[in-house]
Specification:
It is built from 5 helices and 5 strands, in the order βαβαβαβαβα. By secondary structure, the protein is α/β, with parallel strands linked by helices. The protein has a 5-stranded parallel beta sheet with strand order 2-1-3-4-5, sandwiched between helices.
């Protein structure tokens, strides 16, 4: 069974690009355009990996991470931040909140593929 990846991103074009790329690689993909929509999707079906934008219209990515990490049912889900925010402070806060990787926009297809593969590797082993 292929891994299920949830993309939490408010830009429709970027959702489409990520979905297309991940589907090509054989992953199952869902998408949410807001943090609260993503939490609702996760409650119904837990993903194997979350690709998370920090700048969402309702709940920022850091708040989203905090909510996931406080719940034992979701605390283990690997999160890769995919954001235009590239400051050392935002990276540090992300790592303090337990994200496994940080990908800065714009990114290449190769970079995204590498980060997804690396982030899912511990689950495969």
């Amino acid at each position: 069974m292929s891994a299920h990846i949830l993309t939490v991103e408010d830009e429709p074009d970027l959702i489409d690009l990520i979905r297309e790329l991940l589907l090509e690689d054989g992953y199952e993909v869902s998408a949410a355009r807001t943090g609260w929509e993503a939490l609702d999707l996760i409650a119904r079906r837990r993903p194997d990996l979350i690709l998370l934008d920090l700048m969402l219209p309702d709940l920022d990515g850091f708040g989203f991470c905090e909510i996931l990490r406080r719940d034992v049912a979701t605390a283990h889900i690997p999160i890769v931040i995919v954001s235009a925010w590239a400051s050392p402070d935002s990276r540090q806060l992300g790592h303090e909140l337990g994200v496994v990787d940080y990908l800065t926009k714009p990114f290449s297809r190769r970079e995204l593929r590498e980060r997804v593969t690396r982030s899912l590797a511990p689950l495969a082993g």
